[in-house]
Amino acid sequence: MASNSSLLLLLLAVACFISPAISQTCSTQNILSADRTPFENCLDLPVLDSYLHYTYNATNSSLSVAFVATPSRSNGWVAWAINPTTRGMFGSQAFLAYSPRAGARPEVNTYNISSYNLSRGRLSFDFWNLRAEAMAGNRIVIRTSVKVPAGAESVNQVWQIGGNVTSGRPGVHPFNAANLASTAVLRFTVSDAPSSAPGSAPGSAQGPTTPEQAGGPGNAGSMTASVNFGILVMLATIFMF
Question: Looking at the record, which segments are called Disordered (predicted)?
């Protein structure tokens, strides 16, 4: 009986270690808004090891964001965008950042994405407080506030991790499955439906969102938690008899 009790205690200890692993990574990043207050929401985006912190202000129809991602190489780029018309890449209004040299502060510029040939351009909506910062672990943070349509409840977001930047000109991003799935609907409030689900590649059909794809604030890892807890309960029951 003592042996069974010891095993049960061991299983409970394992559960304590599992719980932090299934919590949202973004909630541990300590990213603050321009007025030095925490963002209201954050998301572990479903692909490309990227994160979004955001606050929606209904008073002036604006969205303040901080996008966090790690370039694939030292001279690579990261980007976050809004697409006003569709879920795909083309038509995206992007904020793209990279470090011009090792140890330098990241630069960020705007790009109106109309082709794979990335060129700087003006965006179709107003924005302010745009800047980029370096973060531990070679990550880059893109911060800005953008004007969104009055009364809107969501926008189409696109994020990306690209290739080399040569003489200030970003190269084309890889065409891996994750790079082609980095689109989602971003809903402004937690009370709405889950905020982020992987999008389809540009031009392909968009399937329905499944519970596994859902990534709204606060629900990341919930399915994993249920499975892990269920396994622990099953094992505990076995060892009790």
Answer: 193-219
- As to burial, measured by CB atoms within 10 angstroms (0-12 exposed, 13-18 middle, 19+ buried), residue 59 is exposed
Instruction: Compare 171 and 43 and report the one with higher pLDDT.
Output: 43
- Predicted confidence at residue 3, as pLDDT, reads 52
* DSSP state at residue 174: P
Alpha helix (H) residue ranges in the chain: 2-21, 177-180, 222-240
CA distance 35 to 62: 15
Average pLDDT over residues 107-130: 89
Give 43: exposed, middle or buried? Use CB within 10 Å, 0-12, 13-18, 19+. buried
Residue 110: Cβ within 10 Å count: 16
DSSP-derived secondary structure letter, 87: S
> Does residue 199 register a pLDDT over 60?
no
**Dist. CA 213–CA 217, nearest whole Å:** 13
Strands (E), 45-180: 51-57, 62-69, 76-83, 93-98, 107-112, 127-135, 139-147, 154-166, 169-170
The pair phi, psi for residue 185, each rounded to 5°, is -90, 125
Report the percent of the chain where pLDDT is more than 90. 46
Look up the pTM and report it: 0.71
pLDDT digits (tens, 9 = 90+) for 31-88: 998 888 899 999 999 999 999 999 999 999 999 999 999 999 888 999 999 999 988 8
Question: What's the start-to-end Cα distance of the chain, in Å?
Answer: 9
Residue (of 1, 2, 16) closest to 232 by Cα position:
16
Distance CA 113, CA 160 (A): 12
User: Could you tell me which residues are beta bridge partners of residue 183?
Assistant: 158
Token representation of residue 216: 């709204």
